Amino acid sequence: MLDGVPPGAVDLALTGGSIADVRAGSVRRAAVGIADRTIARIGSDDEVAPHARQVIDVSGRVIVPGYIEPHGHILLANPVEFAGALLRTGTTTAIVDALPFMLLTPPDRLSDLLASLSGLPMKFRWLIRLEPQSFAETGERFRLETLRALWRQPWAAAVGEVTRWVDVLDGDPDLVSKILAAREDGKRVEGHAAGASYERLVGLAAAGFTSCHEAVTAQEARDRLRAGLITMLRHSSIRPDLPGLLTAITRDDIETGRVMLTADGPPPAFISEHGYLDYLLAVAIHSGLAPLDALRMVTLNPAQYYGFRDVGEIAVGKRADLNVLPDLHHPTPSLVLADGTVVAKDQRLTAPLPAPSWDQLRPSVTVPQGVFDLLTAPLDATAGLRLVNDVITEPVAPGEFPPHALHVALLDRGGQWITQSKVIGFADKLGGLATTISSGFDVLVLGQNPTDMTDALRRLARMGGGLVVVERGRDVFSLPLELGAFSLRPWAEVADANRRFNTLLHESGYRFADPIFTLLFLTFDSLPWIRLTSRGLWDVRHRRVLAPAQPI
Asked: Which residues span the domain enclosing 236?
């Protein structure tokens, strides 16, 4: 017997290869025996193989722990399709923002849905938001008692991300009490402190923040580490910052678990083209980071940070979430195991993932007739916004808009209010676009032609959510998001639609990297500088309404 397991008790053995010890930072020749979803044996081929019912020869390859995403978001594709996409390239656990579900799922069904999704082979572990990213009324959804019941569930990894960090520093009693309650329950608090100075980061750490993923320069990464925050180094479609961020990191930062890597929720087109955490590992290694150090940042470090004792390294008793790599310099796995079962081979799933019932997640869109009248009426002189990049905006005074500026409106998906303005820099020519891709999953409408805008809105309402572009009365793009935030279509179809939309927008004059993120963040009430919200056109920097929302 070896490691207390009797002969014949191993379900599967991986033989002929080596294993990466991410804790010791070394590779050694060894076979891995798996029983009852866990690693039961580690030893020589001769010690492990005779006890196995099935043997897979991985000669010349390296077995590493399954990758762990410490901070993710799901965009466009539904969670099951997203999970499959991550599994294909070796991500077996992902800590993911629960906000879309918290806003769109009936509260009495939310816990069951999150629990069901957490049981997939790609293990979702959820970030429980403390507040929405919009000012809209949410009833009981974000009350402390509601949130506490969620974050105490075994599938809840942490609370956050906390985007209203200025409110925390100002002592907002609601946010401060929630953070304190979560910390008393032993939960991590994920920060979103974009642009915060070192002094403010120190204040946020004192207020209970435990991490932040918003560093965009090496100095900002060092500031977060100096302030005592675990620092997630991001590389995504709109923030490809990893090579520069790595220049701030020391070997001690890695070995003490203070840094990790995150893709921070890229859209399907990006994942399909590049991969996921395997891509970040490749970028890190190409930037000069030692492969085992990079590997530790997507395995052991996130596992230790979140207190996941069953994953993150290859050791007896750990869950058998494993990747088989050609070698450490090529982090895209040829074989992926989850719970000891082969779930992907050569970037293809071996079987479809089970899907839950989506009946509880089919929100509707209500568009009163008055909305169409407002969109077709001349827009009074109003303040507006100009895109500086994918995400950041700046104010534009009334009377300073060029003729090609777009009319933009945010409509409550329940049809209660509308905020209208003008925007420069999204596109040079756009008939009408309507979408539920927004921070609160309300309806965003943009365009230059009122008839195309109202036509796009009607089509969107019939779908119940999605993304529609109309030009001169013709539907030139359509992606249903039947679940409000997510599509029921297969991953490949959603990724292809994502690519086609990006191409369409770039041909229309969009000058930045990712229009999906621009749509999402036009309504994000905590990013600089000007945003459309349920209160009206919101000046984030000065925390005031520039033009109020209109009741419908």
From this structure: 71-286
Q: Do 45 and 76 sit in the same domain of this protein?
A: no
In a domain, 355, yes or no: no
Distance CA 157, CA 210 (A): 13
Q: Render pLDDT for 191-228 as a digit per residue (tens, 0 to 9).
A: 999 999 999 999 999 999 999 999 999 999 999 999 99
Distance between CA atoms of residues 275 and 266, nearest Å: 10
Residues 110 and 234 occupy one common structural domain: yes
Residues 265, 207: one domain?
A: yes
One-letter amino acid of 108: D
CB atoms within 10 A of CB 474: 10
Q: Which residues contact 337 (CB under 8 A, 6 or more apart)?
A: 34, 66, 320, 321, 322, 323, 324, 343
At 442-501, the pLDDT tens digits run: 999 999 999 999 999 999 999 999 999 999 999 999 999 999 999 999 999 999 999 999
Residues 92 and 223 in one domain: yes
Mean pLDDT across the chain, nearest whole number?
96
User: DSSP string of 466-488?
Assistant: EEEEEETTEEEEEEE-TTSSEE-
CB distance 410 to 435 below 8 Å: no
Q: What's the number of domains the chain is made of?
A: 3
H helix or E strand, kind and range, residue 419: strand 417-424
Q: Are residues 49 and 89 located together in one domain of the fold?
A: no
Tokens 């083209």 correspond to 273
